[in-house]
Amino acid sequence: MSEAHDFDQYDFLSADSSNELEIDPLAGSGTYTVVSSLPSQVQHAAEAVAGPPIPPASGPFATVSIRCTVNGEPVEVPEVWVADSLLFVLRDRLGRTAAKDGCGEGECGACLVLLDGEPVLGCLTPALVAEGSSVTTPEAYGDGDEVSGALAAHCGAGCGYCLPGIGLTTRALLARQPEPSEAAIRESLSGHLCRCLPPGHFIDAVNEAAQAVKRRG
Amino acid sequence: MDKPSALPGFLIGEQLPAEVAAAAPVDVVAAPAYAAVDPPADGIGKAVPAAKAAGRYPYAADRPGGPGMLYAALARSPYPHAALLNIDVKPALDIPGVHAVLAGQELGVTAVEYRGQCVAVAAADHPALARAALDAVEITYAPGEPLLDARQVFAAARRTGNDSRVAAYRRYTLGEGGDLAEPDEGESTVMYGYEFGRGADPAAAPGAVLAVPHFAQDGHGGLRLVALDLHTACADPMRDLRAVSAALGLPIEAIHLVPAPFTGTRSGDDPDLRVAAALLALRTGRPVRAEGGPADRLAGDAGTPAIRVHATHRVDAEGTLLAVRVELVVDGGADPAGAEPLLDELCRSVVGPYRCENVDIQGWVVRTHNPPAGPWPGGAAMVAAVVAEAQIDAAAAACGRGPLDLRVRNLIRSGDHLPDGRRLAGAVPLPELLTALLDTQMPPFPPGPDIRTFPGTVGRTGELTRVRRGAGIALAMVDLVPPELGEEFASAQVALTSDVNGPIVHVATSMVDTGNGQHALLRKMAREILGVRRVIVRRPANPADLPATAIGPGRTTWLHCMAVQRAARAARSQALAKIAAQFAVSPQLLEVRDGMVVTYDGTLSKPVEEVYAQVLRGAAVYVANGEFRVHGSGAPSPGVFVPEPGTAHVAVAAYRAVVDADTELHTLRPVRVTAAHDAGRVLLPERAQAAVGSGVLTAVDFVFNAQAEEIDLAGAELGGFGALGPGQFPTMLEQPELELLPFAESSIGELDSTMLRRRGFAAPLPLGYIPVRRAAYAACAAALACATRDALEAHPTRMPLRPWGVSN
Ligand code: FES
Ligand code: FES
């Protein structure tokens, strides 16, 4: 019954793509030491999870500990299972639940977070790649900035599940393009599926946020 | 009533009180404290939208289960129909970190009745361990021959006369029935078969359920279950509680259902998830969270039946509708009872908002090995509208007239008869809506210059010369109180009192705020009636304190609003009686209007704050209970609303959709949807607008996103399979622009109903109630289908639309 299990998304963990997991110890703040045995542990665990059937009595899955900064705060998460997604670690281990688990398969954008400033889908990003990096979740912005304010004003009547992710994308868009056109707004938000509100609400919200950002200067 | 202080403590996600949890030593940030209260309910106010945007709004998946929480996973049958020969859970239980595995009998499953049925559940320290446990469970199936095609099942039943799989049958006839003998000179007949697939949100947030058991010492050294908290997205606690309690064999009182906000436009969580989380929590004595994945979404949530409709319409040379005959078959899946309301509504409304004197409609529900048919809110109205409008377009083409011409000529009016024999009562402002619609501008053609506005959007853009534009108009009519509706009721309590800051109103309601502003609506209602600005709405911790029945889709808000209205009025008359005594006027002369207490003759006119201050001195409280009951038919009795015998109340909407088609690259683009609605009476414009928006979104998804039916659960082939273009489903880039015209408000309030009756009209429903969302869903889907038909110059008969090149 492999359909019930989404190890598939960690396919790249198997043999020949291990270099994707190379971690630069100095990428984050230099104070951390690398967990030295990481690559072999990864390898080992990858075999354990990818080779069906999982030998039930083979003991606990391999775990590592991860150090990174989350919203500027250094954290160390011990015993992260090597196939855990970044989203799982953020939500279930660190209690940062603002990034949402929408589809778990890269379709909806609810889980968006920034990894070293780059938007990534938390559900498809292995937690291990955060080692030594800095992660930004929607919590970093609280509800103080223009973008959350505009989203709350225009999109509050929906369920709100998509809003934290859309907020991050909007901030990235406005940083790139201070006065985006309607088509640009639609395109940049097209990685987010909102099930409640038609695009008009979001276009209004982004325009309002753009104005507010401009006024602030 | 709940204590007022219960709410503010629970802005979850306000990060996270430190209290290191012994059972979860690996957590760096301490497990947040567990709390079992409703989320703050104010979807349209300020606080909740801000919490949503900041990611602090506590959906079920965000709620901390507390120390030792386990994760559940569900195993679903790969076979639609099978016997369970043998189940061995031992290997799964041997995996360290796996705490419980329940399968087969323990779940009440002895045989597989549908594909994706839950056959085993597991709870473990980590979600992946739970899934690994399920992989280790050894299940031996004896697959049988599945019956998956409702049409074949139906045909077989007809052939053999064995109707054991036919679960329900309805027939409505008017006049001569749909007599379609040889057409006379100049008459034309159009006959089409339509197919409706199982619609599914492409990536709706999966459900999440959190079950937290509470134990106490039983006095003999053991533990006794005190209560089970069940956090789940839920709009109707009574219905859901009953279902869970039956599945668990626990009394209703032992289960405390804590509603979580909705995610997306779902109608509640998958019952499988609820039962799995609850059973595992009881078995392990620990909190358990169950989250649905893609496989759960398909099996549990896409409970929407496939429907086949065969429709024959006859018109004369002028385009007047002479006769309509319809046969339809609904796939009820493994539990066809759930599809009966859908069958009823579909049969009653499949002719659409058109008058026709000779009608014959027959419908069947059959039982198959597909997942059980859920309620599919709005589904029947949507299917009916798509069929009715497609047939009118076809008939117009057949008699050589314009589609608009045919619609206007045959438009139904107040007083006309529906196929079920009821007379249409109240306002049916379709002509007004249609006029408003036709007054609007079409979007500019050709699209551009930005290629993102072309069909196919980025990267799939063809030449403008190959783009053809289609426009379609569709009308929809949605039934409000069906005749077979049994009694439903809701209750509320309203207390008018004061605190240091002046008068304040406490409303206790049985209605759940699902995060969409239901309580804001009640607040508005109480504010309007009592003239007091500060209103606090909440749901009692124990639902038994304010009884309510299960309420069908579309009527929940109405019933609860009415209950609050009645309670607020009763509280008001108590207060006014006191005021009248003080001012020595008759209480009948007093009323509250725009925050003032006034007499009809104007001799008294004072702000409520001032007047209430006098009558609310000390600890004075005016408390009243209110209740609203509705019944589909039967004798009216005091306190029960029953529509006048033989009358029907409907909501109407008129839509125009514009769709561009790239005839070379075979891509579609819905450009704009223009919507004109009768909203009865708009209490909260934001809410009404959001309801239209969500109806439109659902329609766009349904029409352009063929997905679930194509998917083989075992293969889990989950790519988009959309009609917009290869692999495309409607995202923010492809969604049409929505132009919403100002709401028509046809219900002029209860006060005028006597006058209306004298003039021979039926009164509008109390409160001017109209479920806007269902009408939007229906009219929008039909308009998009008509526009696509126009753009493709073809008559697609399958919804969701198949991508071009895939045969119809
Ligand atoms: S949860 Fe990651 S994209 Fe949907
Ligand atoms: S507001 Fe509900 S998904 Fe966007």
From TrEMBL, chain A:
Which segments of the protein form a coiled coil according to its record?
A: none
The protein's name: 2Fe-2S iron-sulfur cluster binding domain-containing protein
Query: Which InterPro entries does the record associate with it?
Result: 2Fe-2S-bd, 2Fe-2S-bd_dom_sf, 2Fe-2S_ferredoxin-like_sf, 2Fe-2S_ferredoxin-type, 2Fe2S_fd_BS, Beta-grasp_dom_sf, Diverse_Oxidoreductases
UniProt source species? Actinospica acidithermotolerans
Please provide the record's keywords in A-Z order: 2Fe-2S, Iron, Iron-sulfur, Metal-binding, Oxidoreductase
Question: Per the database record, which ranges form the 2Fe-2S ferredoxin-type domain?
Answer: 64-141
The family database entries (PANTHER family) matched by this protein are listed as: OXIDOREDUCTASE WITH IRON-SULFUR SUBUNIT, XANTHINE DEHYDROGENASE IRON-SULFUR-BINDING SUBUNIT XDHC-RELATED
Which GO terms of the molecular function aspect are on file? 2 iron, 2 sulfur cluster binding; metal ion binding; oxidoreductase activity
TrEMBL record, chain B:
- Superkingdom of source: Bacteria
GO molecular-function term, one example from the UniProt record: iron ion binding
The record's section on InterPro entries has: Ald_Oxase/Xan_DH_a/b, Ald_Oxase/Xan_DH_a/b_sf, Ald_Oxase/xanthine_DH-like, AldOxase/xan_DH_MoCoBD1, AldOxase/xan_DH_MoCoBD2, AldOxase/xan_DH_Mopterin-bd_sf
Gene3D superfamilies noted in UniProt: Aldehyde oxidase/xanthine dehydrogenase, a/b hammerhead, Aldehyde oxidase/xanthine dehydrogenase, molybdopterin binding domain
| UniProt domain Aldehyde oxidase/xanthine dehydrogenase a/b hammerhead: residue ranges | 54-145
Instruction: State a single Pfam family of this protein.
Output: MoCoBD_2
**Name of protein:** Molybdopterin-dependent oxidoreductase
Source organism of the structure: Actinospica acidithermotolerans
Lineage, opening ranks: Bacteria, Bacillati, Actinomycetota, Actinomycetes, Catenulisporales
